[in-house]
């Protein structure tokens, strides 16, 4: 395992997690990487770490350039364990290394690891650190997406080390986006935003503002490919996503027991089609919740359907609702629907849950047992009148 040269004296020394398929509930179908970067200067500097089980891979890559005990400075942009798991090993191999991180990271790291003897240097925004020929400027970006997050900028190299921001879960031998299919890169960046960053739109806008004036040739995130050709495009997309900008597009998300709620879902789709509103029909039996979130990122209308099962919602729909509530997309119009036998509680439950997220709700629709022609006609008419 070798270090990969990124620019003069800056190396990628991370790890590739080819088999990762689940990142706290997010289907990572292309695996991921945990990116760490090494700057060779008067002060040998490691920026970020990797998951604990990838420690040997990172150490091998560092060792291809320099003995890890020679590391003078460790910059920890974020404490989540996919980026800090190897930190205890590094601090034991380089006991004199100075550790730079946010004040919240100091507190967090002390609650994750035995940090006895670690030389903490809590930093503030705008603080700088000279490494020799290069320097580092720190910008704290709390809640993008944990309280401890920060990004670091190297003006001499024009590199922004953005940690989780601008990441994508892609395992690949390519390190720079210029060497990777752009459509897959963009899709994975979108999925990453929708499933990780979405709740923190306001903080993302603040972070984008804080780094807006910087001259940036490369953005080095902590997951996936380094951005070279996609910088302007991704800043524009992050600005759009963070402001919850939506299109005239509908998602009809549902599960069904005996096909009745599915019939309703198809009638809802036809209604949007007749209104010339683009739509996607997403069965929760066939679409992973994290993929549904990717579709949802720019959709204005969110229709969610479940039949009533034992006075409740189907488990697949309940799972999606819990996930959606946590990610809390804003500026959406919601529509609850479903079939029922006798109770019909699921429809109100969905309606109330979506309303609690802040969705503006349309009048919901429910149909007993199997939808008849008249029932479908009424459903379509009721929905059409509200669009
Ligand atoms: Fe990639 Fe917040 O960890």
3D architecture notes:
By secondary structure, this protein is of the alpha/beta class. The protein is 34% helix and 25% strand. It has helices at residues 55-63, 81-84, 87-93, 103-112, 182-197, 201-210, 231-242, 260-274, 289-296, 315-327, 345-357, 373-386; strands spanning 4-7, 10-12, 15-17, 22-23, 26-27, 32-34, 37-39, 45-47, 73-75, 98-101, 119-122, 128-130, 135-140, 150-154, 159-163, 218-221, 247-254, 278-283, 299-305, 308-309, 312-313, 333-340, 360-361, 365-368. α6 (201-210) packs antiparallel against α7 and α8 packs across α12 (373-386). It is elongated, with a radius of gyration of 24 Å. Bound molecules: MU-OXO-diiron. MU-OXO-diiron binds next to α2. MU-OXO-diiron binds at residues 78, 80, 82-83, 145-146, 164, 222-223.
């Amino acid at each position: 395992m070798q270090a990969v040269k990124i620019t003069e004296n800056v190396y990628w020394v991370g790890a590739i997690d080819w088999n990762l398929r689940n990142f706290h509930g997010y289907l990572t179908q292309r695996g991921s990487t945990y990116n760490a970067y090494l700057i060779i200067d008067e002060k040998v500097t490691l920026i970020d770490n990797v998951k604990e089980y990838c420690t040997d891979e990172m150490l091998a890559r560092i060792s291809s350039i320099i003995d890890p005990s020679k590391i003078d400075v460790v910059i920890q942009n974020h404490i989540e364990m996919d980026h800090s798991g190897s930190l205890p090993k590094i601090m034991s191999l380089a006991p004199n290394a100075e550790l730079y991180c946010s004040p919240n990271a100091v507190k967090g790291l002390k609650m994750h690891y035995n940090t006895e003897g670690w030389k903490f240097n809590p930093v503030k925004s705008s603080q700088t650190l000279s490494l020799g020929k290069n320097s580092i400027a720190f910008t704290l970006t709390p809640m993008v997406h944990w309280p401890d997050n920060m990004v670091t900028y190297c003006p001499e190299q024009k590199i922004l080390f953005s940690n989780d921001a601008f990441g994508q879960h892609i395992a690949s031998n390519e390190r720079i986006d210029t060497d990777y299919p752009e459509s897959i890169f963009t899709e994975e960046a979108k999925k990453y935003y929708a499933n990780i960053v979405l709740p923190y739109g306001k903080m993302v806008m603040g972070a984008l503002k804080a780094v807006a004036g910087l001259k940036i040739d490369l953005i080095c995130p902590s997951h996936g490919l380094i951005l070279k050709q996609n910088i302007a495009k991704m800043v524009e997309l992050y600005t759009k996503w963070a402001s919850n900008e939506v299109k005239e597009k509908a998602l009809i998300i549902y599960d069904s027991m005996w096909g009745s709620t599915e019939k309703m879902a198809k009638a809802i789709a036809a209604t949007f089609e007749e209104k010339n509103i683009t739509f996607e029909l997403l069965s929760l039996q066939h679409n992973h919740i994290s993929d549904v979130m990717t579709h949802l990122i720019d959709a204005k209308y969110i229709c969610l359907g479940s039949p009533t099962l034992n006075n409740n919602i189907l488990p697949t729909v309940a799972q999606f609702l819990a996930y959606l509530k946590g990610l809390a997309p804003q500026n959406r119009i919601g529509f609850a629907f479903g079939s029922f036998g006798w109770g019909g509680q699921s429809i109100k439950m969905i309606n109330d849950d979506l309303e609690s997220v802040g969705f503006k709700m349309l009048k919901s629709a429910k149909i007993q047992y199997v939808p008849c022609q008249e029932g479908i006609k009424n459903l379509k008419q009721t929905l059409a009148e509200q669009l």
